[in-house]
Every structure is written in structure tokens, then in C-alpha cells.
Write a structure and sequence with these properties.
- It is built from 12 helices and 14 strands.
- With about 325 residues, it is an alpha/beta fold.
- The protein folds into 2 domains: about 140 residues, 3-Layer(aba) Sandwich (Rossmann fold), CATH 3.40.50.720; about 150 residues, Dihydrodipicolinate Reductase, domain 2.
- It has an 8-stranded mixed sheet with strand order 8-9-10-7-11-12-13-14, with helices on one face. The protein has a 6-stranded parallel sheet with strand order 3-2-1-4-5-6, sandwiched between helices.
Length: about 325
């Protein structure tokens, strides 16, 4: 295999800017086919993005002889079926986060890929952002001493009826499609960076509640994690506030590091030498660095940037945090 020729299953909103165009912008990669159940929308996407072929049936795309890699960008409820279909066809898979509805499904996907020797990458794409690579370097350099605590606070106002009338917003609050509420949609980004930097865990605790509609997905979540290296993580998420907050602070024996996951492109370092800011340019296509690494992995030129087992582990954390529901 000299070039990765991609087929996208689920060419919806997430692929318009975040990922789709990047497949034609990284070396040795091209987007050659897309699929969406609504054939008119699939054709429209293909026309606007100059994709040669489009389908309304996922199996037809997977069986396309020119397609040699599959990107699954549908809601989580269908990830496992499409992933197993692609794996059974022997085609490497790049699957959106969250990896699946739950840990059981994620582990089944990872096991199937391993058993059939098919490459599988999970799209925890912040791992490849310059901001988080810098964060990893600062921690490795012991710039704030020995890290004791990681405190995360993430708050957003509730969505209005008008917001929820839009399909791409509504399905994220339907546990049968998303696995849970906005926590399942957004927290995987945050938890994966914690895992990527701090490693395996000893204990996970969680508490979740929806104070306003017991039939809806929980919108207040608290999570505590004890990593094997002794670092304690405290996370709180609320999707029903009057204000917005997106902050993570790492507290060490010699200073602090602060950053956000979604709302800014800077790292703030405070230690005995004073306060320093590191600023990063906003990426046009946020998945492009991860797609580049995935292409290199599929071509045997680099290691897997996020394995199926990594993705399954984050689903295990999410299940553990939300198990009180």
C-alpha cells in the first residue's frame, strides 16, 4: 500500500471542516468515497468536496475496491457495526470518539481488530495538537515539580428548545444514540489527554445526576481518578449553568499549569520564575495532525497514535464515572 484512499461512513457536520478536507491535505492520502444514508446529502457532500464517488449504503462503500481505509464518523450507536464490517473486510479503521456506546462495545471492536490483524485508530485527535504536545513536554521537564492534583471544571448553559430542534444537537442528548449526554460527547477529549499524559489508573469514582428531567441524560457529573503514579484528578461537568467555564489546572510542588480544552489556545505556566504564556495558532482542520499520523501508521511509517485499547480504556473510565445513573 503506497497511498491511503479513504472512504467516509457518515459525511455529516463533523466532517465538513474538522476532518474531511484534511484527508486530501496530508501526504500519501486521498478521499475517494463518502457514504450517508440520505443519498442526496451524500451526493451534495461529494460535489462540494470534490469526492469522486458517493453511496447511501455503508457496505457498498466498504466493498469499493479503490477504498483501502475507512473513517467512521457516524454517531456512536453505529460505530461497532460499521467497524466490525470494515475489519471483516480487512480494511483499517479510523473511528470517531467516543469510540462506542460503552466499554463492552469498544473492547469488542479492539479485540476484533487485533484478532484479524487489522489496524484501528481512535480519533482522540488532541493528542497530536501542538498545544498538548507542549503540555506533555512541560510535564516531562518537571517544570512545576511533582504534580499532585489535576482539577478540571467544565460548565455550559443548557440548550434551548431551538437548539434541540436541530438534529446534530438533539442526538447528543439521546443515550441510545450517544451513550449519554454532552459528557459522553465532550469528556472523552479531556479524559484521553489525562490518560495520554498520566497513564493508567488505580481507582475511578463518579456521581451523575439530572436535577431537572430524570428521563433525560444526566447533565451534572463529578469524577475522581487516582492514577497509579499518585496524581489525583478531580473533574466536574455541568451542562445547565448560567455561565461558561473551561479550565484545567495542574498543581505541582513548584507551580501550576492552566489550560482549556475547547475555548482557548494557550497554556499558562506559573512557578518560581514567574508567569509565562505559551500561545498556539488555531488549526483550520482540527483533526489534520492526527490524520497525518494515522496515514503514516497505516503505511507502516509510524506507531499507532491512539490504539483501540486506548479508546476502550477511556470508555471504561466513562462507564465507571457514570455508573451511578
Amino acid at each position: 500500500m503506497k497511498k491511503i484512499k479513504w472512504g467516509i461512513i457518515g459525511c455529516g457536520d463533523v466532517t465538513e471542516i474538522k476532518s474531511g478536507p484534511a484527508f486530501n491535505k496530508v501526504p500519501d492520502s486521498a478521499l475517494v468515497a463518502v457514504m450517508r444514508r440520505d443519498v442526496a446529502k451524500a451526493a451534495d457532500y461529494a460535489r462540494r468536496h470534490h469526492v469522486p464517488r458517493w453511496y447511501s449504503d455503508a457496505n457498498q462503500l466498504i466493498q469499493d475496491n479503490e477504498v483501502n481505509a475507512i473513517y467512521i464518523a457516524t454517531p456512536p450507536s453505529s460505530h461497532i457495526n460499521y467497524a466490525l464490517m470494515a475489519i471483516d473486510a480487512g480494511k483499517p479503521v479510523y473511528v470517531e470518539k467516543p469510540m462506542a456506546l460503552n466499554y463492552t462495545e469498544a473492547q469488542e471492536m479492539a479485540t476484533a481488530a487485533a484478532n484479524k490483524n487489522v489496524k484501528l485508530v481512535v480519533a482522540h485527535y488532541r493528542r497530536e495538537w501542538p498545544l498538548f504536545k507542549k503540555l506533555q513536554q512541560l510535564i516531562a521537564d518537571n517544570i512545576i515539580g511533582e504534580i499532585q492534583l489535576a482539577n478540571l471544571q467544565f460548565y455550559k448553559p443548557s440548550q434551548s428548545p431551538a437548539d434541540l430542534a436541530i438534529e446534530k444537537n438533539a442526538w447528543r442528548l439521546n443515550p441510545k444514540i450517544s451513550g449519554g449526554g454532552l459528557f459522553h460527547d465532550l469528556a472523552p477529549h479531556q479524559l484521553d489527554i489525562m490518560y495520554h499524559i498520566f497513564g493508567p489508573v488505580n481507582k475511578i469514582y463518579g456521581l451523575t445526576v439530572n436535577r431537572h428531567d430524570v428521563k433525560a441524560a444526566d447533565n451534572i457529573i463529578a469524577g475522581n481518578i487516582l492514577f497509579k503514579n499518585g496524581i489525583v484528578f478531580n473533574g466536574s461537568w455541568c451542562f445547565n449553568t448560567s455561565t461558561t467555564k473551561d479550565q484545567c489546572e495542574l498543581i505541582g510542588t513548584n507551580g501550576t499549569i492552566s489550560f482549556s480544552f475547547f475555548s482557548s489556545n494557550k497554556i499558562t505556566l506559573a512557578n518560581n520564575n514567574g508567569c509565562t504564556e505559551f500561545n498556539f495558532e488555531k488549526l483550520q482542520h482540527v483533526q489534520q495532525p492526527m490524520i497525518k499520523k494515522t496515514v503514516q501508521y497505516f503505511l507502516d511509517k509510524a506507531p499507532n497514535p491512539c490504539t483501540g485499547q486506548d479508546g476502550a480504556e477511556i470508555m471504561r473510565w466513562i462507564d465507571a464515572i457514570t455508573s451511578s445513573h
